[in-house]
Amino acid sequence: MTVTAPGTAGATATSTTDLDAARAALRSRLLDDGVLVDLGSPGLYGRTGVFERVYSAVDAAEVRIHEDLDAEVLRFPPVEPLTAFERTDYIASFPDLAASISGFTGDDRTHRALLAARERGERWESFLQPADLMLTPAVCHPVYGLLSGTLPVGGRTFDILGDSFRREPSLDPMRLQAFHMHEFVHVGTPESAKQHRDGRIPGMRALLESFGLEIDVVPANDPFFGRVGQMLARNQVEQALKFELVTPVYGQDRPWTAIGSANLHEDHFGTSFAIRTADGGVAHSACVAFGLERVTIALFAAHGTDPDAWPRSVRAALAL
Amino acid sequence: MTVTAPGTAGATATSTTDLDAARAALRSRLLDDGVLVDLGSPGLYGRTGVFERVYSAVDAAEVRIHEDLDAEVLRFPPVEPLTAFERTDYIASFPDLAASISGFTGDDRTHRALLAARERGERWESFLQPADLMLTPAVCHPVYGLLSGTLPVGGRTFDILGDSFRREPSLDPMRLQAFHMHEFVHVGTPESAKQHRDGRIPGMRALLESFGLEIDVVPANDPFFGRVGQMLARNQVEQALKFELVTPVYGQDRPWTAIGSANLHEDHFGTSFAIRTADGGVAHSACVAFGLERVTIALFAAHGTDPDAWPRSVRAALAL
Question: Which residues form the Aminoacyl-transfer RNA synthetases class-II family profile domain (chains A, B) (predicted)?
């Protein structure tokens, strides 16, 4: 089925099949040229040495442009306690992306029943119990629970690199289920939070442009779930709280893809996690981030799968 | 309750309470001195800048001693498809450590029912469905599915760093639920696999000793589940397939802790994943690995929480 996108027509029309074909072509090129390895599940890949080389260079370059923040380094596991997850209210806005973890708590007899069911070709997950853990959907989530109470004057700023999981299987190599975000998070006053979001965008844009990528900065349109979600999505665009750095991975006339973001949460986490500023107000927060796999794959899409053949200026910007 | 361990007596007796106290003391020191951050769930921690500094140094040193392998770099996400997990037979041997992932696949109406249950303070995981994904319990697992078929002459050798999850909540900071293994895996003939396991041990031991750690190499005793598992555990020890590099984190007279391992799988994965050698035999495999968080925490336990105050020789060995 070919669906013409609203507002486009004639030779530049973006059709779903065109876009799907472009995504499939990039995916094939990345797999055929040994950049990614197919793990047999949409949106899950093994990453090879050439991928890691570029990925590490992207990450190091991102760290360099935020060095002036003197951010506190924090790393978290790919899972977070359910209690922390609950306070983010993620299950209300993005239930379809969430992922819960179950474990086996039975005895020898229950284990034999599980294995017997498995032997019969039946599913055995019903023998497991919820483990009070979720896969972390947003890399900065675990930090807010550590900040309940009163912040120092000037707030706090964090360097957080970690795993993000979102349950959205896709054959688009720009949309992974498991990926890494390197986030620089500030928690402070309404003014310092807004300044953090707005102040970092020009440097992030310039860095991505130095990688030879065409970049635009646009209001984000997150995939809030369901009918209430449509309203939340409209609010998000109208209030212009979150911006995305987008690049034309699949061509100028097709939807551009977000590879970075700058997000003002206002008092969302400050309220949920009871974080106050030194002057007694509810803390505001903001984070800026690159999606590391997205930037990396955008580079392979733009310049080809052999980094040694990339333009000299791009290799210099990446210190490759 | 004080339980005296078999074979010990008198002043050097190891009691459970003694050991628990030693574990609690190390955990407190790591938290109080800002090496780890408590996330409110046993065995899940945030890792700070000082932790990451040592962790990165340990990882880099491990890579240096295996450089001669010229291993192919592969990185995997923290989750793996259920189909791949099934072929490892992990659920038969270690069901209590396994972790399954569920997602929400319902519509707007089901989502409202989920949120209503949540509002009433009820658990809402029953609204989710198994997602055909497992958390990866062993970092090398995903590689075998990529090798089905015939290997080149000489086999293949991989450098695999990744996330491992095992559902064993513990207050012992040496036993995390989510951690990283850096594994060097060889798949080839019975002889080359055994040579890989045995040949790497001396270098791994020497490296850990250069870090100022006392090391012994002992047969592993994995926690196979249940009554059948007791038999498997005895077999493992008798056949001496897997060795562990252990260090006395909690004192000479208390159980030493594994911080590295060298494991010969024989034809386990070769058979399960239909991998054959160039001469037509069933492939054998072996992997050697450091548990990166375990080595890192063993260093903090041995030398204190300020790396700048560590012995000069230790800092030199770590290039710190």
Answer: 162-307
